């Protein structure tokens, strides 16, 4: 059982006290850290004079002393209960000095202040600051922070915190100190400090108003050659935010620090971002193209938070999507501008439709603005981030780019320096557009993925075409009945040549449960292209024939929908194969898909990146999400058969295209080169399904010739997952010896093995856990091995002997004592038991029960497990 109470949005109360200034002093020692905080506090206007001051402090924080206006606090004046420290009988204005002792070296949860491989680092969002000192640890309490760090000079030459360095000096015994001041009032979750022996890469950016900003990226010396791309991305993001949103940076220095131990991707602490190395280090030899793009987008995301998150922050954690949904939307548009809008959209929608739709259909489903939580860390979800970004995108679609920009200008101007709500964001959009967005706000309050059913009729005599749109939304834990959403549905009507019928591309606004839209003067039965660009996060149902999908995959006037038509055609075929497998019928290949794939392979008009995407079959995860009851074996075998059959039927074309995409040119991370490598790797993947020694040799030659990780890793993956076991072992070994000193590359090496679908994966995973490069305290290693096995190796994880499930439960129980956030995240696959057959359901539930029987579960794991059984 968990001790932590459920927190409700409806119980929100404004804070009774504000902290004007926060002076912190950290004495960093090997065994312990002493923290002295000096707070100047005032009672909030209108607050009850009897109101207590509530400070938060984690149980691991040892309280050494509390002084109020210079006097030790009397025993009856304060009370510590759970995470709350309440002070009574307070003056309207006072100073509080609080001394605490903490133990960063023993902090394995990686929240608050901890040591990552000899480097002190913090993670305070959402509630990590209370693991450092007693403080009103809530985002609507903002304060000006001054921070002094004291540490051994030789071990910790670099001492960083938010804002600007204002003083420094040396002390006896080889110690030194630095004081930092951040002029912008901020909530405690944006506080950060770093101390360590770090190297830096420097550059400058001149803002639109001519201010010169110092940019620094810190990492371990061995990684200094991997920082140029992050720096370049940062400068492009700074410029983009000035151009697209009119947002200028507001301090003289912007720092990023890369650390090896990090629970998430990165953190936007004011002026001092802290990043997982995986989201900042990039070098062609060690980093794939996909990882380069991730670095670019995460660097931009954290930078964009400086306005959407830091200058305007959240009133409470229920409003998390206020900053995350908006900032994800901003980073998505940035990446689209840097690369290709269509490719980026395909990537976003694929992720949304597999992972977020699955979350929305599972026991942890919650609205973009949740109503309650036990542990806020459990709500850093795809729903809050990715669906939240879709909601902002819909506002952009409904208002159009100009009004949307006026809306963000108003939002930033009106709320600068405030802690606000998602309602405030929508209100700014309503005010600039004069539109009533009250119905639209249901996207924030109702969970679940809406269904959009579309039917049509053509009246030839009247030349009228009608689209009948019908929406519904399944029940989710917070509500059984849903009210209709305000849904932008972008459409076009095409004639039988595939040309756009003039005037028919438009955004239909569906607001009722059912609505008919009429188009006049339509000369012949048109073919509708629906939900273009995926204009709303819904499941579309329209009875296209296979032939119509094949036609749309060639002619749709929307790039996203061209891809989508091909995908849906492949989905149908795969669903028929899945049914065949379950009925014990032999697989057979339908000619239509071969024709479509063949014409894509031959089409020289299609850009190679798009071609690679078009030729990639829907993932097992997406097929699982679409399934009524998930049959992991049938899904795996059907997809495997189809890949192999397409490889065989079009063998010469795959090989020709691989050859055409092969190049001697030195690596470049440009759009054209990324596209070329992607298509080349897709071809290799198909060819390697044929179990043909000639293609094994081709893969090995690609592995050996590669001057970059994108081609080397794809070759390794193809061989490692093939049936050539000796070659697989040899290549994995060679790769290991080449890269064993590169921790991030070793994560790839671990992940490739953990995702190998061949039988016996669990035993291989057990061996990986014994491997010297494995470190069960490092979240990246846990994700590479445990996360990958349980989420990207469905045939093995869901083996009917139940061993995969027991393995995961063992790891959760072990990890919960060490790092509850990671334990809770890794638990996700077990929570999805309702989607499986009776036998698997029982096995999965049994493991959830076993976890729940553990007496001292963290709130994190308790919340997820208890809501899931
Ligand atoms: N605000 C960070 C980001 O999205 C994520 C931090 C989440 N941390 C956590 N412990 N849940 O950029
Ligand atoms: Zn964020």
UniProtKB/TrEMBL annotation:
<feature type="domain" description="Peptidase M1 membrane alanine aminopeptidase">
    <location>
        <begin position="229"/>
        <end position="443"/>
    </location>
</feature>
<dbReference type="InterPro" id="IPR014782">
    <property type="entry name" value="Peptidase_M1_dom"/>
</dbReference>
<keyword id="KW-0645">Protease</keyword>
<dbReference type="Pfam" id="PF01433">
    <property type="entry name" value="Peptidase_M1"/>
</dbReference>
<dbReference type="InterPro" id="IPR037144">
    <property type="entry name" value="Peptidase_M1_pepN_C_sf"/>
</dbReference>
<comment type="similarity">
    <text>Belongs to the peptidase M1 family.</text>
</comment>
<dbReference type="InterPro" id="IPR035414">
    <property type="entry name" value="Peptidase_M1_pepN_Ig-like"/>
</dbReference>
<comment type="function">
    <text>Aminopeptidase N is involved in the degradation of intracellular peptides generated by protein breakdown during normal growth as well as in response to nutrient starvation.</text>
</comment>
<feature type="domain" description="Peptidase M1 alanyl aminopeptidase C-terminal">
    <location>
        <begin position="546"/>
        <end position="868"/>
    </location>
</feature>
<keyword id="KW-0479">Metal-binding</keyword>
<dbReference type="GO" id="GO:0008237">
    <property type="term" value="F:metallopeptidase activity"/>
</dbReference>
<dbReference type="GO" id="GO:0008270">
    <property type="term" value="F:zinc ion binding"/>
</dbReference>
<dbReference type="GO" id="GO:0016285">
    <property type="term" value="F:alanyl aminopeptidase activity"/>
</dbReference>
<dbReference type="GO" id="GO:0006508">
    <property type="term" value="P:proteolysis"/>
</dbReference>
<dbReference type="Pfam" id="PF17900">
    <property type="entry name" value="Peptidase_M1_N"/>
</dbReference>
<feature type="domain" description="Peptidase M1 alanyl aminopeptidase Ig-like fold">
    <location>
        <begin position="448"/>
        <end position="542"/>
    </location>
</feature>
<dbReference type="InterPro" id="IPR042097">
    <property type="entry name" value="Aminopeptidase_N-like_N_sf"/>
</dbReference>
<keyword id="KW-0862">Zinc</keyword>
<dbReference type="InterPro" id="IPR045357">
    <property type="entry name" value="Aminopeptidase_N-like_N"/>
</dbReference>
<dbReference type="InterPro" id="IPR027268">
    <property type="entry name" value="Peptidase_M4/M1_CTD_sf"/>
</dbReference>
<protein>
    <recommendedName>
        <fullName>Aminopeptidase N</fullName>
        <ecNumber>3.4.11.2</ecNumber>
    </recommendedName>
</protein>
<keyword id="KW-0031">Aminopeptidase</keyword>
<dbReference type="InterPro" id="IPR038438">
    <property type="entry name" value="PepN_Ig-like_sf"/>
</dbReference>
<dbReference type="InterPro" id="IPR012779">
    <property type="entry name" value="Peptidase_M1_pepN"/>
</dbReference>
<dbReference type="Pfam" id="PF17432">
    <property type="entry name" value="DUF3458_C"/>
</dbReference>
<dbReference type="InterPro" id="IPR001930">
    <property type="entry name" value="Peptidase_M1"/>
</dbReference>
<keyword id="KW-0482">Metalloprotease</keyword>
<dbReference type="Pfam" id="PF11940">
    <property type="entry name" value="DUF3458"/>
</dbReference>
<feature type="domain" description="Aminopeptidase N-like N-terminal">
    <location>
        <begin position="65"/>
        <end position="190"/>
    </location>
</feature>
<dbReference type="InterPro" id="IPR024601">
    <property type="entry name" value="Peptidase_M1_pepN_C"/>
</dbReference>
<keyword id="KW-0378">Hydrolase</keyword>
